[in-house]
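Collaborator request, handled under Task 6.
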Amino acid sequence: MVRLPITPDELERGQRLGALLRHARGERSMLDVALEAGVSPETLRKIETGRVATPSFQSIAAIGRVLGLSLDDVWAEINPPQAVLLAR
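Structure tokens returned to the collaborator:
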């Protein structure tokens, strides 16, 4: 399977997602959160730093659950209202 290039919008969303997760994690260790979510610490690190601009739904759902973030909250944070209106 050939992966399409990441768009600038996807990169920006990935950076916003990473910032949200870092903020929500607070003082908790990356290792503890990753293990509780069932993802590798390396995966969590890459998502938090924006190196994975389009992480899997399962990873985000699991990490969000551990951090007390609903998927609605994550979606609202990483997609500015203007982008939602343009998508319609």
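The cover message to the collaborator said: "The chain has a mean pLDDT of 89. The radius of gyration is 13 Å. Please let us know whether this matches your experimental observations."
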